[in-house]
Amino acid sequence: xxxxxxxxxxxxxxxxxxxxxxxxxxxxxxYGTLLKLVSEVNRQVMxxxxxVAEALRWTGEIERLDQERHGAIxxxxxxxxxxxxxxxxxxxxxxxxxxxxxxxxxPVHSTAFRPVHEQSLHASPFRVFTSxxxxxxxxxxxxxxxxxxxLEQRQIFTPRAFQLIEQSxxxxxxxDSDADAFVxxxxxxxxxxxxxxxxxxxxxQLHDQHRLIADVVAFKGPHIxxxxxRTLDIDAIxxxxxxxxIPPKAVIEGPPPRRHPILLRQTSFxxxxxxxxxxxxxxxxxxxxxxxxxxxxxxxxxxxxxxxxLLDATRDALGGAPAESNADRYMNLLAEQFRAFPDDLRQMxxxxxxxxxxxxxxxxxxxxxxxxxxxTLDGLIDAGHIHFEALxxxxxxxxxxxxxxxxxxxxxxxxxxxxxxxxxxxxxALGMRVQDELALYAxxxxxxxxxxxxxxxxxxxxxxx
Length: 465
Ligand code: OOG
Ligand code: NI
Prior knowledge:
Blueprint: E1 6-7, H1 9-27, H2 29-48, H3 50-59, H4 61-64, E2 69-75, H5 78-90, E3 94-100, E4 108-114, H6 118-123, E5 127-133, H7 141-152, H8 159-171, E6 174-175, H9 176-190, H10 200-209, H11 211-217, E7 226-229, H12 234-240, E8 264-269, E9 273-277, E10 282-286, E11 290-295, H13 301-318, H14 327-337, H15 345-350, E12 356-360, H16 362-366, H17 377-382, E13 386-390, H18 398-409, H19 423-430, H20 437-455
Helix pairs in contact: 1-2, 1-9, 2-3, 5-19, 8-9, 10-11, 13-14
């Protein structure tokens, strides 16, 4: 088949993202309520703070805001992870970053499957935070055996999904109707199943070891456990949730409120209790929850080191994990520590704390052939020939992710696994390397400078940041 008949992976991802959203709205009606609350708040923010809307227009994010969502799944074995990787690749989603959550008491390690180029992110920013259960961290050998043998017997992909993945890999893409078929088949992998694959007693055994283990092992597939919209004001959402009958977790994960948001702030609400048909009895399980995120600037290694240092200092000062009882004190300590992180885009740029996108302005374009004009990036910025905006953070944060996991697993009985980061083992299971997110941000920034140089008729080298 000629390649021009293939639909782009971006388009397959966009179709998949909206199909997932539709499915999740039907499965978890509260998600629909949340979407309404988020779009209401986003509209209010853009009306009240024109500078926020203006920044979103420069970067084009205003167009992707309503499309914006991430989801999360947990898989049980290396072969499931490897096939998930191939399935996501069909829709242009690649593994970025490695997250070790064992140090926070969750026996998984994870990556985010996401588009990597800014144009693809713009077309459809959908991402899936994907965790692999680490059976090797279960200390009871009999239970480990049981879990492994149950997982071995399940098949989380439909035969037609396998065929279409292979076809896409072989031919280099899918045509329009095959793409639709692929989306429909892929959706099955992420559905909720009312029937468990285990008896009530087996479920209890797995659950007693760790709730997460039961969630991964006892079911037919890696049900999507949340879909997260992006808000422009997470504090307003946190405050507004109770009035909508949605009880939020105790604290917002990530950095404190700022004029210029950095990285990622997240909050969530508790899992739903769902009735389950075990093989021998009726019962219940909690797995699925709601989450909201606010995204800000991607940080350079220097900025990220400062963020990690300030977050650690906050937790040290608190003397424990943030919870209901110390939520106010935690948020105050966080705000206090983060005074050391400049809340000003110019300073963040001058100090090399964040990545940026650069744009040639009307004024710059008008002076394109002028004999006299500034020749350095700083000079062009000062003269108003180049405008810059923060590059948005597209990834996740390990401490925050652990907080989201914990809030939905219950604060009781936190397990201890020590620190067990093992990126090599994860990549071996996945069958490929995960990409370095910092390199992706640096490339994206570089491309925007190259585009400016071209638009302004300047030699590239002149605009090295
Ligand atoms: C994933 C929790 C982490 C995030 O956005 O950081 C997460 C899970 O519960 O499977 O979703
Ligand atoms: Ni999430």
